[in-house]
Amino acid sequence: MILADKIINERKKLGWSQEELAEKLDVSRQSVSKWESAQSAPDLNRVLKMAEIFGVSTDYLLKDDIDSQEPKYSADDQFETEKEARAVSMEEASSYLSVVEQVTSRIAFGVGLCIISPALLLVMTDLANAGTVSEWLAFSIGLAMLFILIACGVLIFVLVGRRTNPYEYLEKEAIDTAYGVDGMVRELKEKNDRKNTLNIAIGVAICIISAIPLIIGELLLSEIGKEDLSSSLVAVLLLMVAIGVYFIINGASRIGAYNKLLQEGDYTVEGKKASITVDKFASVYWPIATAVYLIWSFTTNDWGTTWIVWPIAGVLFGCVSGAVKNFHK
Predict the structure, then answer these.
(1) Separation between Cα atoms, residue 244 and residue 237, nearest integer Å
(2) What is residue 203's predicted lDDT score, i.e. its pLDDT?
(3) Lowest-confidence range among 46-60, 95-109, 309-323?
(4) What pLDDT score was predicted for residue 303?
(5) What is the largest CA-CA distance in the chain?
(6) pLDDT at residue 54 greater than cutoff 60
(7) How does DSSP assign 133-199, residue by residue?
(8) Residue 228: what pLDDT?
(9) All domains of the chain in start order, with CATH
């Protein structure tokens, strides 16, 4: 085993990203990346430092004929060994990235359907208020479309889940990628970084400006005395948010896939431990948020106001998730 492989193995045992190792060695991430891809070799001082923080001998790092060595941590050492990592071959990594490319747009579309599901109900409510259609007909059509769109979204999630379930371990278990996988994934990540970042930026921008038509529309409708059409403006807002989220998911999902294989970002060993806790919390939190939204909406029939449940729920969930991740760190 060559030095490059040993650096990768020891770094992953400790659950560190390349950035974290680079910080401890006082070098750039690019330097660590070059060492691990065998494009260059660290100087003697860096090798000595790595031997110290990895808890191994310099002979183990420098001699290719020594393939393994048990780390010799002291009782008060700040590092602890992780459970045996799951091996990920080049074929498995490539297959996973291929699946992500195929299903990401479908997931984004399914989420969009769920977001816009109340839109027609809001428009039909305005038509009923204007006397164009009866309230019963407006409510029936709008409600039917709401459930149809949600059902379509859930169906998409179920079908996509069948493709992605075999790779769930990437989010929850420590992994040990085969030689060459890290280099391949990092090359793809850097190649598509601009595109994925741009998708996220466009999506965030659309979500931010989605409130502008609502604000301007409310002012114009109040001027002409047509406040009873304001719910349709919320439908426009939901449509814009759905478009924005579509872009965000397309960019973030691909970046997330790379980070899972590289065990970086939210998918370090500590991050995976935190995600298990967050998932348990989410399994209770989001059904409660959905129940609050539906009960409030059906009891008040004020769909133009009740949508506020989702941004509030999202912000609160983000705060809790962040607190959990910091706790694990």
Answers:
(1) 10
(2) 94
(3) 309-323
(4) 64
(5) 85
(6) yes
(7) S-HHHHHHHHHHHHHHHHHHHHHHHHHHHHHHGGGTHHHHS-EEEPTTHHHHHHHHHHHHHHHHHHH
(8) 59
(9) 3-62 (1.10.260.40), 88-172+181-260 (no CATH), 268-329 (no CATH)
